[in-house]
Design a protein that fits this description.
Layout (H helix, E strand, L loop, with lengths): L1 H5 L6 H31 L5 H38 L3 H28 L1 H7 L4 H14 L3 H15 L4 H25 L3 H24 L17 H39 L5 H37 L3 H28 L1 H6 L5 H14 L5 H14 L3 H22 L8 H25 L9
Helix pairs in contact: 2-8, 2-9, 2-11, 3-4, 3-6, 3-7, 3-10, 3-11, 4-7, 5-6, 6-9, 7-8, 7-9, 8-9, 10-11, 10-16, 11-12, 11-14, 11-15, 12-15, 14-17, 15-16, 15-17, 16-17
Length: 458
Amino acid sequence: MQKTSTDFSTGSVRQRIIAQAVPLTLAQAVQLLYNIVDRIYIGHLPDVGQVALTGLGITFPVIVLIAAFTQLVGVGGTPLFSMARGRRDEKEASAILGNVFAMLLIASVLCFFVGFCFRRPILFAFGASEESYFYADQYLRIYLFGTAFSMLVTGLNGYINAQGFPRIGMMTTLLGAVINIALDPLFIFVLNMGVQGAALATVISQGISCLWVLRFLTGKQAVIRLQRREIRICPERSRRIMTLGIPGFVMQGTNSLVQIVCNNQLQLYGSLQFAGGGDLYVGVMTVLGSVRELLSLPVGGIANGSQPVLGFNYGAGEYGRVREGIRFTAVLGAVYTLIAWAVVMLIPRPMIGMFTDDAATIEVGARMLNIYFFGFVFMAFQFAGQSTFQALGKARQAVFFSLFRKAIIVVPLTLLLPRLGYGVEGVFLAEPISNAIGGLACFVTMWLTVYRQLKPSK
């Protein structure tokens, strides 16, 4: 029974993808609650909620950069791990897992020391004002102490899913999120720790999730276990892991770059359009980013859930099943994003109101939300194309389209549109334009160069 449940070359491809995607999406939703709950509580702090929320938004590029290094190492090894399992090469799969664990530990130590020692110049470079820096620093200096927990949880949980245990993977983040949700009001309001309490609750919950992941991967239930003798750095294996991890690294890295550019542009042009300065617009972008993360979860879960299935069948030579999985992922993602787009257009104010009571933030945020989410459906094509390239080991294509949408389209538009007369609205307009151009370019290229070349098995 266990062999059947972890052998993705049998059974319905659609059911296999859904079986991976549903618990993975729930796990990612719970993971997102780490930050979302913090933003909701902090945004509703009496008197200082709006500027505290802005300060939290300033820390996002740092957190995203940490996630980028997690993608480079942890997620980069997942396709190799899945393909090795597809070839029934369990020895190589075990070696990949051990190599990834060692790399994550080294990367977490480096990220902590750089982030902690240089956090002041980093935060001001990322768009902080004198007022918002106070809250950004309070959060970040505590959050950084959980760097190793965060990277190990995110980087290793994918290896639980890739072995056919998505429900266990979901429990990883569910456990941590429940603890975080319980601790947040205690630390923030009861103990009156404010922003520092939110950071401390996050670190504790991530630490508990980390213990859960390590307990499973070293236990008897895992098909491929994390073994002490395999925890070492192999240069050639590390190179292959990082080669496939570069797309995720670039995507997260460019996300961080976009946030940095946006924060600085919002501070500059926001101060020209609003007497209170650019902090209001940085706070609005923080809320919009939260809404986008929430609404992107299902389509991202579908794409990520398809990767183990696509990679396994590609390694097993079942190309017809790979083609079917690509089609299903694209269609399902497109249907969902159309529905999500319609919801955004209908109820923008309640969505913003979840994160703040500030009237100005709600008023401006509702208007910007409609601009920011225009053409949201194109995100489905970006996810489908990107996940296919990565699942089949097409690293160069995946890297290019990660760079293309963010670094080549969004960043220049974010710098250019405000100067062309769109003002602060131009910063928000850059996102939907990049979704349309980048999403279609990625999917069409994947369809022509990968999908059509996969000949179904006879």
